[in-house]
Amino acid sequence: MKSQKQIINLVQDLATPHNNVLIAAFKDCNEAQIKLWYARDMDQSRYQWSTNISHEHFPAEIYGTSLNWRFIKYCLSHPEEKFVIVGWMNANTRLIHLLFFLLRRPFNHWTDLPDPKAQGMSLKQNFLRWSAYKLLKHAHSKVFGVGATTLICFRGWGFSAKQLVNLPIFVAVDEDLPAYHAKRSQLLEQYAINQQGFLISAGSRLIQEKGYDLLIKAIGLLDAVIRQHIKVVIVGSGDCLSELEQLVIDLNLSGQIVMEKWLAIDDFKALIANSDVFIHPSRFDSYGGTTLGMALGVPVIGSNGAGAAFDRIKQGRNGFLYDAEDIQALANFITLLYQNPELKRRMGVEAYKTACQWPSRRGVDIILNNAI
Q1: Contacts for 40-46 with beta carbons within 8 Å, 24 or more apart?
Q2: Distance (Å, rounded) from C-alpha 254 to C-alpha 247?
Q3: Which element (helix H / strand E) includes 107?
Q4: Is the pLDDT of residue 42 over 90?
């Protein structure tokens, strides 16, 4: 008789494109089926996606942000199923954590690394966060951490190694790179780069933690002759946009640096795929864009404050890792790749190989082999 599939309940606040990459891999999974739960069906105030991605691969249940006793009852009355809860985002997920803890029910918690320098947290908020992680530490739980830096942090908080599992963010690596590369001439013309020019891409929310001011300052340290051949395109929006634009003017870098508002995802991928290097300069980023750069066959220069860079960069092989505030080191690595086209090419090949070692099916296997 054919055995019944294990049911994995993935409980999130909101659907995200990167988690959907992992979710899609469950379509071909014979061992388990995934059941999706979201607090919000779609939130235009947080993400301006043109389509609703909550039901992109499987139909999802929307349990709401207010207490939903039907959802709570389902969680408590299905002990044969496994639950992976992403973060502490709303009243329902916080209550489920507490009830599973009190009932000694096994469950799984998936989290990235909270910013250790988070600003504006009150004494009460800090106490609640401390209490939440204390509960998690002593619960019958597995903690799936996004990347090595998250696991290191949890070990520092006293979590046992047996309780911790690395479950990073996944990106698709089966991209049609030739189609993106076919857009190179168009991009060079768009950004006024000659055929011998050196294109650098970067992008995320433009906030202080992401370190784009450090990238701009590093470009200002480049040799003047090299700098005139370089074009940096920083994609994104956020609180620091006007400050960054002014910094570009103050450092007389308007000819080298372009601040580009959010691009459609395929346009952003085309930009990265045609770049000579992708830079991930964060002071702090729980994971971030390094994986996307590698999946598009581009070497990455990333700071050790960026979780994905710390996780994936093999120094001098598929990219370079440096201390976030060391802008001279960043400038030196840019110069090295500019002056060594063959090194840049080899690193791009190795970056893509690294990305291929992390297909989304690997994430499914991590969950199946470790979830309790």
Answers
A1: 40/13, 40/14, 40/65, 42/15, 43/14, 46/14
A2: 10
A3: strand 107-111
A4: no
| Single pTM value for the model | 0.86
Summarize pLDDT for 133-188 with one digit per residue, the tens: 999 999 999 999 999 999 999 999 999 999 999 999 999 886 789 999 999 999 99
Q: How confident is the prediction for the chain on average, in pLDDT?
A: 92
239-295 pLDDT per residue, tens:
999 999 999 999 999 999 999 998 888 899 999 999 999 999 999 998 999 999 999
Residue type, 131: S
Q: Which amino acid is at 333?
A: F
Backbone angles phi, psi at 197, to 5 degrees: -70, 165
Q: Residues with Cβ < 8 Å from 268, sequence gap 6 or more?
A: 203, 235
Token pair of 144, please? 């799936």
Rounded to the nearest angstrom, the gap between the alpha carbon of residue 349 and the centroid of all alpha carbons in its chain is 21
Complete domains list, the chain, with CATH: 6-171+359-370 (3.40.50.2000), 177-356 (3.40.50.2000)
